Amino acid sequence: MDKAIIxxxxxxxxxxxxxxxxxxxxxxxxxxxxTWDRFFGFSDVSSEQATYxxxxxxxxxxxxxxPEAPPINLxxxxxxxxxxxxxxxxxxxxxxxGYGDNRIVLMVRDPEWLxxxxxxxxxxxxxxxxxxxxxxxxxxxxxxxxxxxxxxxxGYNAHKHLDIQVTGGTRSWYIKxxxxxxxxxVDIGFLTFNDxxxxxxxxxxxxxxxxxxxxxxxxxWIGIEKLYEKLYVPVDTGISESVFERAHRNWQESxxxxxxxxxxxxxxxxxxx
Amino acid sequence: xxxxxxxxxxxxxxxxxxxxxxxxxxxEDWLFEAITExxxxxxxxxxxxxxxxxxFRITMSLTPPLISMLTDxxxxxxxxxxxxxxxxxxxxxxxxxxxxxxxxxxxxxxxRHFTNVRYVFAEKxxxxxxxxxxxxxxxxxxxxxxxxxxxxxxxxxxNNINAMRAQIQVAVTxxxxxxxxxxxxxxxxxxxxxxxxxxxxxxAGIRFFITETHGILFAxxxxxxxxxxxIYCPSGVAAFGRDMESSKQVWSAKEGYPGDFSYRDFYxxxxxxxxxxxxxxxxxxxxKRTNIxxxxxxxxxxxxxxxPYSHERALDKAAEHAGNFMxxxxxxxxxxxxxxxxxxxxxxPYDAELFGHWWFEGPDWINxxxxxxxxxxxTISLITPMEYLEIYPVNQVSTPSFSSWGYKGYSExxxxxxxxxxxxxxxxxxxxxxxxxxxxxxxxxxxxxxNKALNQAARELLLAQSxxxxxxxxxxxxxxYAVKRTKEHLSRFNKLYDDIRSNNIDVAWLADIxxxxxxxxxxxxxxxx
Lengths: 273, 529
Description:
- The structure holds two protein chains of two kinds.
- By secondary structure, chain A is of the alpha+beta class.
- Chain A has helices at 3-39, 76-85, 122-132, 225-231, 243-256, and strands at residues 103-108, 113-119, 140-147, 160-165, 172-176, 183-191, 197-202, 206-207.
- Chain A has five helices and eight strands, in the order ααββαββββββαα.
- Chain A is elongated and about 105 Å long.
- Chain B is α/β, with parallel strands linked by helices.
- In chain B, 49% of the residues lie in helices and 8% in strands.
- Chain B has helices spanning 29-51, 64-70, 73-96, 101-124, 130-138, 161-179, 197-203, 213-217, 244-251, 270-273, 276-279, 311-339, 362-375, 385-391, 422-439, 448-464, 467-475, 479-501, 507-516, and strands at 4-12, 58-62, 142-145, 185-186, 208-211, 231-232, 238-241, 345-351, 380-382.
- In chain B, strand 6 (231-232) and strand 7 (238-241) form a beta hairpin.
- The interface between A and B is large, with 76 and 100 residues.
């Protein structure tokens, strides 16, 4: 047979396999993306899904995969039903993905959780990565959460810190600190394999809310124990605790079991609990 | 002489929903339902008590968006159309049910109710029911307090003091315009307080606010009287804590009064129950079945089988529940008074729309409660927080704890996976608004267009900040509308920002959005500087 024909046949077979491989790879990636989201459900929701490129990272394979194409939307049918509830839906304008800022913002959710979101400038990240040279391939993006309670933070004097590795494409994160009445701030940056941290941006500081009856007593206004006792049904745990401690614990429980609200105006559940 | 006080507080609020671009709009019904089922029934209760010379005290927050809608000519005329359609339907219903006496009686009840509501709205108060509330306030029966300008959740504004201040100042100015004096109290949006907010209240001349129970309970130093007396924040503004015991009796889905089997069932509405073609003229343009407000059944039990509603029986129940509530407060006050060296105050706040809309008999319950308190006992007196401060001007100084009345008591309901995406945009817009105000401190005479654009930017930011949108996104119904509103106001704001900075204001477009988002016509953007 003519060599050229054989070559053509081989090329054809190669093309077919290549196409098959690509389809298969895409499916695996999608599947992986879904699974990833399931396990690490922190990634930004829906419209906020950032693209990978925003991170300006050169080598894609170093990072956990975030699906490029939108993953199969399992909630699609449900959303369709919802759509019917609204009488008129002219097109909704989209908001910008970012504002060209290089910043990280920290917010308080409750005594245990903080929320942070960020936007990083590609040129700044590139310049840091350039400085790192060969090490750039080994860096991880982390959130470094500092406990800065009652200090003037200079970057080095935090009471303690906690590192959280975040995945490429993510632009926000819930941070569990589990510490009421403490102050925190957070840096986002690159951590190299030899533990050098290159901060890209530092957040504002926030203080978590109190979660308990205060130990501070004003001598002119000493708390009436019985009033606190009356607030709650005493629970006998067998552990000796003060009325204030008990009040605190009972209140925590009641916070968790907040009475669900009656619904209100046509689905606008204005009632809170 | 009474041994203690009860302060009933109703928080009346709806987000600003007004769509002149459509001939009718589904979500505008929220306002119309609230007028029909809550606001006018309450006005009727108050008017009747006054007519009969029965003294009472109540505190109500009327939020700026609600006041804006209730005083808006377009919505007022749309409300007339709404109520007239219901009157028309009840006329048909009286005819349709003429051989079913149980239902016929109810159809007649609704006919009387709707015609009365129409009369009170259109004739008695000339389409502006704010006049009714102002009248009660001027008579000293009602203390109207304000709220955030658009019910923005202050602790989630991330310490942008100017943005938080604008929520307060705009509300105070708006209140003054409608009630002829400054507000003395405020219902913080979602009851959400964080230390420092009181300083902004102080600047605005506000004397007191309400916090969730743990706002006071976890205050520091430890409050001597717990939640049964106010504390003064370091700024001097008083904080009153919500009493859980009285709240639960009304609120609780399990133990609360509104779930009684004799009361009207909220879910069985003719909009869903009757023949489609028959009710279609009373539905919205898209023909989707919705609540019309005529409901013929009582809760009956935890069953799908529902018995016809008996208004008489339900009223007996409301009277019984009012008696029970009063009895419990008497016992509570007697106990508290025995261990306190002053008269305790029990602060019982509720969403106003619970009464009448969700709990149909709620306004009657308030009516019975006030009458019983006036005639049947001597242990408790009704009071407003301001009156309590006049009796007890000396209070402990303590800083309340960060708190809200939402699920789990902090910010989670407004900051979670369903709605957290809004904050990067809201906070950016708030920063940009401050920047605009600071870079446009003094405008010359030829800058009226720029001035208009700056004021509209402030309106768009405020409207985007309504905590209602985040709330709805989490609650899961009408989500798309809340998303749309958030994006729409933010996009309008962003365009205004760009246009103002590039000095290229789109005149026709600005006029268009001024017509749509016409809340706070007198706003002055300098409030952000």
